[in-house]
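Researcher: I'd like a candidate sequence for this fold, 416 residues long. If you have to choose between options at a position, lean toward the conservative one.
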């Protein structure tokens, strides 16, 4: 069912949202992007005259109640954003009365789903690989189904609008969908936008298509890189993962971050890129320091000649100049991951420049740009460029798995 075609009047809708927003030490929301992202779906339900039940996780309480991770802290933020008073159910697994009392046009927020171990469905306190673990896993699967069934009993329509958790097979993101027929379960507007943006990149890309993949580890993005080799014209690899590629080719990288066990895979990627005619572009020089500190003295070395005792911390001007030419000549751009130690101000320059290049290619040259992943999104926002790229994804992990070609459980559950 398509959400645009559904009239929620007379219905109770339970919506999986991603309200895992950052809080300060006093429990105040410091960035309400995720709340605002869900508003089109939530307001559609309320304006139709439907009753709205929202459910989300926050943080990683691992099945235990934690006041610092209570969604009760954000009720006012959600109320203000929606423009209606939001009621609060203090136990997501025991909210039947609150849900039953809800009238059309009213809204209810459930407490953090992950206060219940059943939400994630992982056995607690049992060691993996033991007979006890296998037994506990089977028991937990049954408990997860019961928890999902309980959540489903609160409403007659299910909407999944939490792209950030679409790659998880949790009670609220996938299992719950089994308790609704195909005419009463659907994706929300945000999910539809996310999937459309990813499809624009993977299936309908205009060429030249450039992917910029950064971050610290090759291991976390190897599947993505391999899948992209069949789609892109240019693959820019920056950040910590680049040093594994350099060392694999015999370069000296000092004490830069790298993964020795991934060097054979790095060589395979280099070989595959050559065979497929993909322009694989690594750094040519890097800004280095002798300690992982914002105030450490900086020095630029050729990427293959970093002395012992020095580590790569940021992309050099020479590398950025090469990447700028490629990015500005592109018609489709995918960016995931920083090209330096973005969290340290003195080593954030390279990532900031990438953000500017992507925005420039979009605004001036008409490229379609998809940006995702915490640091990439932070950079785009930090420099005030979020409205100058085509789409900023709310889900780093989900976006990566989709780009890797994996089926997202949260999407598959709606479609079956």
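Model: Candidate sequence:
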């Amino acid at each position: 069912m398509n959400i645009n075609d559904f009239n929620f009047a007379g219905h109770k809708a339970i919506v999986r949202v991603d309200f895992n927003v950052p809080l300060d030490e006093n429990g105040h929301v410091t960035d309400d992007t995720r709340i605002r992202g869900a508003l089109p779906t939530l307001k559609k339900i309320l304006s139709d005259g439907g009753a709205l039940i929202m459910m989300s996780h926050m943080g990683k309480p691992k099945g235990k109640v934690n006041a610092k991770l209570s969604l009760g802290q954000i009720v006012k933020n959600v109320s203000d954003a929606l423009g209606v008073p939001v009621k609060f159910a203090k136990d997501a697994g025991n909210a039947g009365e609150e849900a039953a009392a809800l009238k059309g046009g009213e809204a209810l927020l459930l407490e953090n789903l992950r206060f219940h171990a059943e939400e994630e469905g992982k056995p607690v306190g049992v060691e993996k690989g033991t007979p006890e673990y296998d037994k506990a896993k089977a028991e937990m699967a049954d408990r997860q189904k019961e928890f999902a069934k309980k959540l489903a009993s609160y409403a007659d329509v299910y909407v999944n609008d939490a792209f950030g958790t679409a790659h998880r097979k949790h009670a609220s993101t996938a299992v719950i969908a089994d308790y609704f027929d195909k005419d009463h379960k659907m994706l929300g507007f945000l999910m539809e936008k996310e999937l459309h943006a990813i499809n624009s990149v993977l299936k309908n890309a205009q060429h030249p298509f450039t992917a910029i993949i950064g971050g610290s580890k090759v291991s976390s993005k190897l599947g993505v890189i391999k899948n992209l080799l069949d789609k892109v014209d240019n693959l820019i690899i920056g950040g910590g993962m680049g040093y594994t590629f350099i060392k694999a080719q015999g370069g000296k990288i000092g004490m830069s971050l790298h993964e020795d066990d991934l060097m054979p895979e790095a060589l395979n990627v280099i070989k595959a890129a050559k065979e497929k005619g993909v322009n694989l572009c690594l750094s040519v020089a890097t800004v280095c320091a002798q300690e992982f500190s914002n105030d450490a003295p900086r020095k630029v070395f050729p990427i293959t000649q970093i002395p012992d005792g020095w580590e790569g911390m940021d992309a050099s001007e020479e590398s950025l100049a090469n990447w700028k030419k490629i990015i500005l000549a592109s018609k489709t751009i995918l960016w995931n991951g920083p090209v330096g130690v973005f969290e340290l101000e003195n080593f954030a320059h390279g990532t900031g420049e990438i953000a500017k290049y992507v925005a420039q290619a979009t605004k001036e040259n008409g490229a379609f740009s998809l940006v995702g992943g915490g640091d990439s999104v932070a950079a785009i926002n930090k420099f005030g460029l979020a409205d100058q790229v085509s789409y900023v994804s709310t889900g780093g992990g989900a976006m990566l798995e989709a780009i890797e070609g994996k089926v997202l459980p949260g999407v598959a559950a709606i479609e079956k």
